[in-house]
């Protein structure tokens, strides 16, 4: 009797697990590179081929890595300048040429990967306008190997654009990033770095295999929970009464 009770209890638990929805995020990643900025790249992704109601979110992640390159500055003013150079690569998604609506956070704000260093530039040494290498009024910064990433959620109002059996394209623009803390009176130039990276689209809450399980009826869960609770109480009573349905004589 006790073994039968345990078997029934385990079977009921398995039944409860079986009616719960099987959901898992579906992740697609497309890599790009190596490119010399400026460059425009289109990446193709598969639509989610399940039901729109399966989704709880869609997240887009943009990652960029910068390698090498050289930034140069030359002081043209008559006074010493403290100059911080930030140099690397940047990337942003292109709202107008992508074939789906993408997060504006990744459109309006560039994702930057760069190195920085501060230099003291002597007053102009008379070497002429423009970047002239050499001299105390000149400095250069070699690019490093740096990675940066950003992510944002897609507005729920446009999730339907990501659902279907076809594909869509996300376009990104890659540029050289060169920023000076005090650009007035300072000439600048650069040899562009090499950039690479990836874009990831995650369908959150999607059902396995692109479909997605359906949620169990509330009544089924209540019935199963009540049955399991009753079995547990019955098992407790059996232990106290020696395994029979009533008290011992």
* Number of E-state strands: 11
What is the SS-derived class?
alpha+beta
Mean pLDDT: 83
Tell me the Rg in angstroms.
31 Å
Q: How far is it from the N-terminal to the C-terminal residue, by CA? A: 19 Å
Proportion of residues in extended strands: 35-45%
What series of H and E elements makes up the topology? HEEEEEHEEEEEEH
User: What is the domain tally?
Assistant: 2
**How many strands, which pairing sense, and closed or not: the largest β-sheet?**
4 strands, antiparallel
Q: If strands are numbered along the chain, what order do they take across the biggest sheet?
A: 1-11-3-8
The parts where pLDDT drops under 50 for at least 5 residues are: 5-10, 12-20, 209-225, 244-249
Based on Cα principal axes, name the global outline: elongated
The count of helical stretches stands at 3
Helix content: 10-25%
Describe the structure.
With 249 residues, the chain is α+β, with helices and mostly antiparallel strands. The chain has two domains: 1-20 and 216-249; 23-213. Helix content is 18%, strand content 42%. It contains three helices and eleven strands; from the N terminus they run H-E-E-E-E-E-H-E-E-E-E-E-E-H. It has helices spanning 2-19, 105-108, 218-240; strands at 26-35, 39-46, 57-67, 70-75, 81-93, 111-121, 138-142, 145-153, 167-180, 186-191, 194-204. The strands form three sheets. A four-stranded antiparallel sheet has the order 1-11-3-8, with no helix packed on it. The protein has a four-stranded antiparallel sheet with strand order 2-9-5-6. Helix 1 (2-19) runs antiparallel to helix 3. The longest helix is centred in the C-terminal third of the chain and has 23 residues, at 218-240. It is elongated, with a radius of gyration of 31 Å. It starts with a helix and ends in a 9-residue tail after the last helix. The model is unreliable at 5-10, 12-20, 209-225 and 244-249 (pLDDT under 50).
